[in-house]
Amino acid sequence: MDVAEPVTLKTLAGELGLNVSTVSRVINAEPGTEAKWASPETIRRIQELARQRGYARNPHAASLRTSRSDLVGVIVPRLQDYVLATIYEGIDAAAEARGRVTVVANSLDDPIRQRLRTESLLARRVDGLIFGDAHQESPYLDELAARGVPLTLVSRRRAGHVSVTCDDEAGGRLAAEHLLSTGRRRFAVIAGAEYASTTLDRVGGFLEVLAGHGIGATDVDIHYTGFDAPAGQRAIAEILAGPSRPEAVFAVNDFAAIGAIGALQTLGISVPDDIAVVGYNDTPIAEAVNLTTVRSPMVEMGRLGFEKLLALLDKEEVQSERLAPQFIARSTA
């Protein structure tokens, strides 16, 4: 039985009467960039014949030619975290549109695990990395940059690295301005983790506005318990054990806010009549429970984080970007 010869770039070029290099450049071009190599009619002929002949691009051969694997590694604290999962969807959609593949790993927000997972991805020849779990004091990202590893940050920022985040300081200011407009003057904050820029920026913006109204940071009850619902529940226990009850609580994450509301309701404390609650991110569950919150552009954050990484891979000048938040008023504040 005769075995069909594989269809190669040389085969296609011969049938079309074109140079192999022209056919190769068109077929291996990133989607939308084929016009750099040929006329629209030539591109149409090449792509049509490739489909007819069942030509399949060899990613391994392409990798050897370009020194790129077309793989991008993504490190997140936890994919079960809705915010990071949504940001990752933005990354993955942008990667698919550019003919790239993403590989995601969980660090559990642990610097040692972050290092191990990252080195594992680098051993698999990823072209670059996107981090959603940056810690303010960890030197590892600086080490990677010194080694020449292309990387960008999403969700959290860190000095010296290209990042795409929500303008979290502005978001904190929006929360404070709203609560002050309702006449509240005694505040508590469920602040997340001190190693995350999301905590530092959101709390910082919140306190900045309060200070402008004569309420100092020492007058605000701040609790660094975490970002999830149990963290919100723990924070409420600590807050209510204090000397004075706040009139409003700002949680730097919707899930912590929802945990706080549950704990308050269990104790018979009315939200917002007794204590108002504001969250952050505007996840779908926030809308479902009518949570007043600050919306962050999660999908766009991921998309831009990926696009900036590609720009770094192409040796372009790239700047960090902060995306505008939006205050969403509902029934909890």
Give an overview of the whole structure:
45% of the residues lie in helices and 14% in strands. It has 333 residues and is α/β, with parallel strands linked by helices. The protein has three domains: 9-57, no CATH class; 68-166 and 298-323, Response regulator (Rossmann fold), CATH 3.40.50.2300; 168-295, 3-Layer(aba) Sandwich (Rossmann fold). The strands form three sheets. It has a six-stranded parallel β-sheet with strand order 2-1-3-4-5-11, with helices on both faces. The longest helix is centred in the N-terminal third of the chain and has 16 residues, at 82-97. The model has no long low-confidence stretch (mean pLDDT 91).
Radius of gyration: 25 Å
Q: Got a strand count?
A: 12
Strand content: 5-15%
SSE string, helices as H and strands as E = HHHHEHEHEHEEHEHEHEHEHEHEE
CATH homology superfamily of the largest domain: Response regulator
At CATH level 2, the architecture of the largest domain is 3-Layer(aba) Sandwich
Name the CATH class of the largest domain.
Alpha Beta
For this structure, the CATH topology of the largest domain is Rossmann fold
Largest sheet: 6 strands, parallel
The percentage helix is 40-55%
